[in-house]
Structures are given as C-alpha cells and as structure tokens.
Amino acid sequence: MADGFIVRGMTHSIPFRASPAWWSSRRWAGLAAALAAAAVAVAINRKIPALSPLLVCILLGVAVRHALTRPAAWTVMQPGLGFAARRLLRAGIVLLGLQLSLADIAAVGWTTALGVGAIVAGGMATAMWVGRRLGLERDQAALIACGFSICGAAAVAGLQSVLRRPRRDEAATAIALVVLFGTLMIGLAPLVVAALGVGDRRAGVWIGGSVHEVAQVVAASGLVSVAVLKIAVLVKLMRVLCLAPVLAGASWLERRRGAGEGGTLPPPVPLFVVAFIGAVALRSTGVLPADVVHDATTLQGLLLGAAMFALGTSVHWTGIRAAGLRPIAVAGVTTLVVAGLAGVVAALA
User: Fold this and answer.
1) Structure confidence at residue 266 (pLDDT)
2) Considering the domain boundaries, does residue 23 fall inside one?
3) CA dihedral 217, 317, 62, 155 (to 10 degrees)
4) CA distance 295 to 152
5) Tally of domains within the chain
6) Can you list the residues of the chain whose pLDDT is less than 70?
7) Residue 14 DSSP one-character state
8) How far is Cα of residue 34 from the mean position of the Cα atoms in its chain?
9) Is residue 248 situated within a structural domain?
10) What would the DSSP string read from start to end of 153-206?
C-alpha cells in the first residue's frame, strides 16, 4: 500500500452500536453501501485472487470517507454502517468457522497445532508488553495483538466488538497496520523461503504461521508453489481457530474490569463465539456438502467485507503520522516475533 495510512478523530463519527430503532428508521443507505462494496470486492477477488476482498473493502471505505464530507450524509449512513460493523461482522466470523475442521488439524499434525498456539500466545504477549512499555493505550495494543497474532482485520474487528468502550479509530489504526505489514510480508516471505532453501512443508508452516491475513497467506504461499499453499492455508486456519478462546477470554476480562463500574456488562462468552465453535464442530462432522461450504465461504466474504467497509470509513488517508510511531513500533516488533516463532515451529515440523 501507499505510504500514508493515518487514523484520526472524525467530526462525524459512526458508532458501532446501531440504534434500537434502526429497522424502523428506514435509513438503509449505510448498509446498502457496505454490502455493495463487499459485492464489488468479491467480484474483484475472483478476477484477481491475490487481491484480498477485505483490503478492497477497507480502501473503498476510505474513499467514501473522503468523498462524503457533508454531515447530513453521515447522519443518514450511521445506522447502517453501525449495523454492518457489529452484526454483520459477527455473522461473518461464525461462518469463518466452517472453513476449519479437526481433520484439518490432524492432517498438519498435533505438534504443529500446539506450535500454532505458541505463535498466537507469544505474539499477543509481545504486543501487550511492548505496548505497555511504550505507553500505548491498552485497548489499542490488544487490537494490534489480535490482528497480528491471529487473523488480521477480522480478529481486530472481533475483539473490538467485545470491548465495553470500543474506539473506532483504534480499530481502524490496527487494521491499517495489518494491511501495511501484511502486504510487505507477501513480497518478503517467498524471498526468505527461497533464500533459506527449505522444503515445502516447512515453507508452508512458516508462511501460514507468520503472515497476518488469510488472503495474504494465500498470496504469499501461492508465489512459492501449490504444495506450500495447501499447508500454509491449513496452518493459517488453525490460527483462526484461536480467535474463539481469545475473544471469550477478552469478554471475561471486560466483565471483571467493568463489574465495579455499573452499566451493561458483556456476556461471559459472546454468543457469536459459541456459534463459531459450533460451526467448527459442524464442519468436523463431514455432513456438510462441499457446495454448502463454498456458498457459506462466499457469504462470509460478503459479511466481513461489509464490516471492513464500515471500519474503512474511519480511516483517513493523509499520512501515517497522526497515528504516531508507537502503534507502528508495536506492529513491527510483533511481526518479527510472530515470524520468529513460526520459524521455530516450521523447523520442528
């Protein structure tokens, strides 16, 4: 991506929580725009598979943010974008569970599966520690930790949805950094694999364990070989599976943190996390036909794309300096640690 993603406060912010009277308000503009952007992104991805539909949706959201400067336009779009950023996001994460089964984990090996858990835990611990040392806001560090350790933008948005006091600009910053560093990894990962001369299995484990987005893993490993691509995607999907316990743990911590403050507390385990685990279990039974899984994957792309478009509307394209150097430093160190841990797991594979 071009140099210069920043996130700054919007004069007309778009809340994540849709109004209770959303359906009666008939303000469909934001939701229609988000779904249209997602459909366009999916169509582009079919023509250019290496181009992530989530990335396209984020960029479209950025474009709309700059094109629409009238406050009245944002007032109309707020309810629909809020619905997309929260409800459609959670539905998309549930469908993401249908991409992974326990048989996939067994095919890669339980040693590698345990290594994936170590990659996620190590990456998150690193981001939180470095963020604390640099004085970064706790939620901002946690969002970067999730995005860089688990599955990119979807993990960032998923964590944001269970925070008691979510800040949209923090989520957008984390997503912008995922896009930036993940895009760099697409080019660097194949070069590292070629320079080290490792075999297909180790190359696949390393790329799947170190690159941030699923689409970025596909792009990077596809540049090496089809054999590497298959292994890398399986390893990446095992990282996706870690999203459920992480979100459940985050929700529990938010309950503890807010217990003495009054107000509405998040559930101990969010319902969509339970549904995500159920989707993995359903896929593991083998009862779902391949075409059903394919259609669910397409729908998941549309739902997550719409959510990413909504998040993209809070990203301001004028330079990265407004986000400050601290989030970039946390993202950079986390990327190096995750890549290093993935290298250890690959060596043991």
Assistant:
1) 55
2) no
3) 40
4) 22
5) 1
6) 1-27, 50, 71, 166-168, 258-270, 314-323
7) -
8) 17
9) yes
10) HHHHHHHHTT-SS--HHHHHHHHHHHHHHHHHHHHHHHHHHHHHT--HHHHHHH
Query: What span, in angstroms and rounded, lies between the C-alpha atoms of 312 and 55?
Result: 9
20 within some domain: no
- DSSP-derived 3-state class of residue 335: helix
24: in domain: no
- b/e code 289-316 from CB counts within 10 Å (16+ = b): eeeeeeebeeebbbbbbbbbbbbbbbbb
pLDDT at residue 132, rounded to an integer: 93
pLDDT tens, position by position, 188-246: 998 999 998 888 899 999 999 999 887 788 778 877 887 887 788 888 888 888 888 88
Instruction: Report the amino acid identity of residue 222.
Output: G
Residues spanned by the domain of 70: 29-258+265-316+323-348
How far the first Cα of the chain sits from its last, in Å, is 33
DSSP states of 207-237: HHHH-SSHHHHHHHHHTT-HHHHHHHHHHHH
